Amino acid sequence: MDEKFIRYHADTNTYIIRRKAFFENSIKIDGNMIVGPGANFWKDLEVSGSLQLGKESLVKGNIKANDALISTRCEISGNIEIANDLTMLDNVKVGGSAICGNEMSIRPGCQVKFVKAATALELIGKVAIKEIESGTKLIVRSEM
After folding, report:
1. pLDDT number for residue 1
2. Which residues of 36-57 are buried (b: 16+ CB within 10 A; e: fewer)?
3. Residue 135: left (phi > 0), alpha (psi -120 to 50), or beta?
4. Distance between alpha carbon 47 and the CA centroid of its chain, in Å?
5. ∠ CA 110-112-117, rounded to 5°
6. What distance in Å separates the CA atoms of residue 31 and residue 15, rounded to the nearest whole number?
7. Of 99, 80, 18, 84, residue with least CA distance to 50
8. Given CB 3.0 to 4.6 Å as the disulfide criterion, which of 30, 36, 58, 91 pairs with 109?
9. What are phi and psi of 84, to 5 degrees?
10. Could you read off the pLDDT of 30-42 as tens digits, one per residue?
11. Is the model's pTM score more than 0.85?
12. Half-sphere exposure in the Cβ direction for 2 (13 Å, CA)
């Protein structure tokens, strides 16, 4: 892990990634992570706590976290696996599946191949989802 792109806040056990940072290897963090805009992860990203992925960030591998907020115009080539809640803001592209253990919220313009939410899946506005796990509680809202 390249130390020049990372700051650590000990009180909250949070790693803060600078904007436009890039990482060539897989990243595994024991704690929380806040990622600045335009960061690039060329392999997998795993966080034991909560993840806030900054806008226009790119993850070429898979994402694993406890909770996650994926900001606008992010692109994830692999799968997203979240233990609790997952929120995807506008125009997020996921090349694989998005699975969460509680509630998932997907905003307008998002594209996902497969989604599964244990509690509820909320779709807001026009989203492109190819397949939804059967038995998933679905809430559809117009764009606010």
Report:
1. 53
2. bbbbebeebbbbbbbbbbbbbb
3. left
4. 11
5. 105
6. 7
7. 84
8. 91
9. -115, -110
10. 999 999 999 999 9
11. yes
12. 13
User: Cα separations (Å) of 14 from 8, 38, 119?
Assistant: 6, 19, 27
Cβ neighbours for 137, distance < 8 A, ≥ 6 positions apart: 117, 119, 120, 121
Which region, left, alpha or beta, applies to residue 91 given φ > 0 means left and ψ of -120 to 50 means alpha? left
Q: Which helix (H) or strand (E) holds 140?
A: strand 138-141
Place of tokens 């694993």: 64
Query: Which residue, among 67, 71, 63, has the nearest Cα to 110 in the 3D structure?
Result: 71
CA 102 to CA 65: how far, in whole Å? 13
Q: Which amino acid, residue 7?
A: R
Instruction: Tell me what pLDDT residue 2 has.
Output: 56
Q: Say if residues 71 and 91 touch (Cβ distance below 8 Å).
A: no
Cα 101 to Cα 33, 46, 82, 85: the distances in Å are 19, 16, 6, 7
Distance, CA of 25 to CA of 144 (rounded, Å): 39
